[in-house]
Known about the structure:
Blueprint: E1 4-15, E2 18-29, E3 33-37, H1 44-52, E4 59-64, E5 67-68, H2 69-72, H3 74-78, E6 81-84, H4 96-106, H5 113-126, H6 143-155, E7 161-165, H7 173-190, E8 193-197, H8 201-207, E9 210-215, E10 218-224, H9 234-241
Parallel strand pairs: 3-8, 3-9, 6-7, 7-8
Antiparallel strand pairs: 1-2, 1-4, 4-5, 9-10
Helix pairs in contact: 4-5, 4-6, 5-6, 6-7, 7-8
Amino acid sequence: MAGFMISVKKIKKSFNENIVLDGISLDVSKGESMVVIGGSGTGKSVLLKIILGLIKPDSGKISIEGQDILNIGRTKFLDRFGMLFQGGALFDSLNVWQNIAFRLVKGQHPMKKSDAKDIALQKLKRVGLNPNVADLFPSELSGGMQKRVGLARAIASSPEIIFFDEPTTGLDPIMAGVINELIREIVVEMGVTAITITHDMTSVRAIADRVAMIHNGLVQWTGPIKDLEKSNDPYLNQFLNGESKGPIEAIR
């Protein structure tokens, strides 16, 4: 993994008097699967939205392959990534293949609908769904199927970077395992750089090459997945063991 695909340097973000990110820095190597963990309200989703350009930081810098994202141009930057949203975020008015192909026909370089549909059917197969699902609407799908369609949409444009926001939320343990396995396979297959936000430790162990734990607006611990259980960091150990007592105060 030569060089950093994503580099976050001293990002700060506050909402009114509430400091969410307090100078956070994080590097993600090209082709690496980074999983960001931390308790609720620790700034995981805010960090992701800042990287995506959905929220403007108060200070700090984010670069993609060494280039400041502010100088890349938003459209050019967005062309490089895919996203699996927490709730699936499928368009209710579009059927499955149209959801998967949405970016292909509505993006910067639109393709013919017939070609886009062919790609959508290929991606549908890749996530383990039958082609006869293609003409169904999101309301006709189970939660697990919706998540797979969301994953197919995330990879449809063959992105270099994929973001996964709580990919197993709302799924039963078996389906969560299926989604984790699919994500890991696809990340390795495509050689993409991935950032996953989750508090599900099963997902962490299944998906991650490296892990970063956020607490108090900073990266408290980061390292390869193999070192996760060996850490002596009291914050990380409390989080991993789900203990009420420790340096992380439980909000009551």
